[in-house]
Design goal:
Elements lengths: L1 H16 L6 H12 L4 E16 L2 E16 L4 E10 L6 E8 L2 E6 L2 E5 L4 H8 L2 H10 L1 E10 L2 E9 L2 H16 L21 H5 L1 E10 L5 E12 L1 H4 L7 E13 L18 E3 L6 H5 L5
Helix pairs in contact: 2-4
Length: 296
């Protein structure tokens, strides 16, 4: 009987030791499902960009970093974020802050406050509530389970892979256009006419890469961290655009951590926000430049 008991316990231990982890698709679906059931959470995103510009007689580098943090309360339909952009070699940094409270939206740019005329509060709240979109990005991407790690004190599944091609094209398109803003080269007219087909040329895809890594809690299935690392190389020849000579090499590394799920979060609008006299009814789509993400 004793030998039988020992053998039985050994089998239980073996079964536990070799228990199969869920498939990547199961984890992705779990992440997407849990993201739509949230009440509150906070996040912090650190993004670092490095760009090299060159031609036969010129070479220059540009580095910048952006730190964004925010909080979301879906119960009260309120949100807040703050972003700071710093470029290497420049004394000043750029700062923004946004609030969505009581159905109204206020932005602070530098020391100036702007109130937006909100026609669709649900749509604006969806912009502040970024978790479903980020979780959906994970769910739609081609991902593999590469291991487990401790993230923010929780054991997490780690998934790694690439986004679907339409999202990949948009990511690279945004990164390419962003690279031209501090560029010493004039943006080709073909890239400024909003012709998306220009940004989908296969040569750009062949000389670029985007890797997504996601950490999902084993216990809750919640997305705890999301890294997006991308790089691209662009020349006029690759894009088939008007003759000129230049080369742009761009890398963007972005890491977002999520926490305070279900915690008590109160968002208070600073009194000085109500003193601003500037109003905006257009241009709200540029909030994506601040939020730093692509909607799948």
């Amino acid at each position: 009987m004793k030998a039988y008991t020992i053998a039985f316990l050994a089998l239980l231990m073996i079964g536990t030791a070799f228990a199969e982890e869920p498939a990547a698709d199961q984890i992705k679906a779990m992440v997407a499902e849990e993201a739509i059931n949230l009440a509150t959470y906070s996040y912090e995103r650190v993004a670092e960009a490095s760009i090299r510009y060159s031609n036969s007689s010129f070479e220059a580098d540009f580095q910048a970093s952006k730190v964004t943090q925010g909080m979301v309360n879906l119960t009260s339909q309120e949100g807040w974020w703050e972003a700071k952009l710093t470029a290497t070699g420049r004394e000043e940094s750029l700062g923004w802050e946004g609030y969505f409270v009581n159905g109204s939206e206020y932005w602070k740019e530098g020391d100036n406050w702007t109130e937006f005329i909100v026609d669709d509060p649900a749509s604006i709240m969806a912009d502040y509530n970024e978790m479903p979109g980020q979780a959906n990005l994970v769910n739609l991407s081609s991902m593999e389970l590469v291991g487990t790690e401790i993230c923010d004190g929780e054991e997490c599944y780690v998934l790694s892979g690439t986004p679907p091609e339409p999202v990949l094209q948009r990511m690279l398109g945004v990164q390419l256009l962003a690279a031209f803003y501090p560029s010493p080269f004039t943006m080709p007219s073909e890239l400024g006419d909003e012709d998306e087909e220009v940004l989908e040329i296969s040569n750009l895809m062949n000389n670029s890469s985007v890797e997504i890594t996601a950490w999902a809690s084993k216990d809750s299935g919640l997305l705890k961290r999301l890294d997006i690392n991308s790089s691209l190389v662009m020349t006029p020849e690759m894009m088939g655009i008007s003759p000129s000579e230049f080369r742009i090499e761009s890398t963007l590394n972005e890491s977002t951590t999520y926490s305070q799920f279900g915690s008590s979060i109160e968002i208070e609008l600073p009194p000085e926000a109500l003193e601003g006299e500037t109003y905006r009814t257009e241009g709200t789509d540029w909030r994506w430049a601040v939020f730093g993400k692509i909607k799948p």
